[in-house]
Amino acid sequence: MKSVLAATILGTAIMTTAFAQAAPEANHSGVLSLDAQAVTEVPTDTVTLTLSAEQEGADPGAISTALSRKADDVINQAKRTSGVQAETGGFNIYPNTDRNGKISVWRGRAEVRITSKDFAAASKLAGQLANQMQVQNVNFTLSREARTAAEAKLIDQAVNSFRDKALTTTKLFGYTSYTIRDVHVSEGSNNPGPRPMMRMAAAPASFDSAPVPIEGGKAQVTVTVSGAVQMLK
Fold it and tell me: How many alpha carbons fall within 13 Å on the CB side of residue 60?
């Protein structure tokens, strides 16, 4: 009985070993990883202006009320301008102390951000608001619609570049063709950085300010195709 059992175990072990030896190993040789990019520059089509007002005094409550009213007035005026969106930004009230650590004065700052694709309308509005809030920062961006349209044009270029690069590199390694093992497509954009504006004092209420100079830049849009191919003889 023991001899039969031993023979059975031995036979199973031999069969298992033979099967394992016969099983094909995964072929990882001749695999090439690579990527290709298509890049273009697109004029920015959206501007965001950060307007701010500051105030100081002995009563923080009065400062807060005055700045809140000013921010509300600016937002309401901006919303009456066609093609312009407005929202509140930062709002801060803080004390300044003297050398003895006592509060000498309270300061406050309120911000409003206006955004528009109509640069002329945003420029004119910023000039009209100069007696209430002044432009502190100008930021140009690319809208989602413009970015998507640019990416759609770049995908064909990136894919063709990936194919050409794969075939050229495959032949350099002595192979004749390839098959794609896996591939990924990703998009990205790089907007120009914000432009700080020179600090200016508030204009008198009767002052008819000229439009604020606004000139957009260009955003870089990129489509990247990356993956791995199996080179073939």
Answer: 11
